[in-house]
């Protein structure tokens, strides 16, 4: 009967909807939340904005506490260990490169800063001139890089589930996949250069995430 056909169709459509929702549930845990790709992007963008804000604060405080006594104000040469990572120059170039390539750049930058920021925090904890509040900020900044990398990895997994990007970049979030993370070049930077370079790179990460979001889910706040 027509009523039976309608009921079967409704049941079938309902099952398809639940399967689609379950397929994008992170790792399929029981009771997990169904987070949209747009919401995941919003979370990592907000997190990256906070991280960049902390890097700005620390850079300013570092200049206040250390540089005046060392007569280094105005020094413009900076050696960044991440200069070996090719990054798109400007918004237009970032919009032109492939989504996989832009995602790869973001992950490479995050992994490359894991060890340097942890060692920077250990260095700061030994300086009595640098107050405890600022030292705690350096630890928070190190933790935020780790959390942001995990968040971006979830965005990558979601995009792969939805068929937006290929699965070929699945292991880019692991330090073993990236030479920059275990390079000793960052050890040659002094603390001021390190803060300067991280402030620059955290700003890049924030902008790249915004550009990636607007390319993939432009209907959500772009």
UniProtKB/TrEMBL annotation:
Name the Gene3D superfamilies on file: 1.20.1250.10
Major place of residence: secreted
Q: Which SUPFAM superfamilies match?
A: 4-helical cytokines
Keywords assigned: Disulfide bond, Hormone, Secreted, Signal
Superkingdom: Eukaryota
Question: Localized where?
Answer: Secreted
Q: What start and end residues bound the annotated signal peptide? A: 1-21
Database matches in Pfam families: Hormone_1
| InterPro entries linked to this entry | 4_helix_cytokine-like_core, Somatotropin/Prolactin, Somatotropin_CS
Q: Which family does it belong to?
A: Belongs to the somatotropin/prolactin family.
User: Which protein, by its recorded name, is this?
Assistant: Prolactin 2
């Amino acid at each position: 009967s027509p009523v039976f056909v309608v009921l079967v169709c409704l049941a079938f459509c309902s099952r398809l909807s639940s399967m689609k929702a379950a397929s994008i549930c992170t790792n399929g845990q029981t009771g997990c939340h169904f987070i949209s790709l747009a919401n995941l992007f919003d979370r990592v963008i907000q997190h990256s904005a906070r991280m960049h804000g902390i890097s700005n604060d620390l850079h300013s405080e570092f200049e206040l506490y250390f540089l005046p006594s060392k007569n280094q104000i105005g020094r413009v040469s900076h050696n960044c260990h991440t200069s070996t990572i090719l990054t798109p120059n400007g918004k237009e170039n970032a919009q032109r490169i492939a989504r996989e390539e832009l995602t790869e750049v973001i992950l490479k930058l995050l992994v490359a800063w894991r060890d340097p920021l942890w060692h920077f925090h250990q260095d700061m904890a030994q300086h009595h001139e640098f107050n405890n509040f600022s030292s705690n900020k350096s630890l928070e900044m190190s933790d935020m890089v780790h959390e942001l990398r995990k968040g971006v990895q979830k965005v990558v997994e979601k995009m792969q589930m939805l068929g937006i990007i290929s699965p070929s970049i699945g292991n880019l979030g692991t330090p073993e996949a990236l030479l920059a993370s275990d390079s000793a070049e960052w050890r040659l930077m002094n603390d001021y250069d390190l803060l300067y370079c991280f402030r620059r790179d955290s700003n890049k990460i924030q902008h790249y995430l915004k550009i990636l979001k607007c390319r993939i889910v432009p209907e959500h706040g772009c």
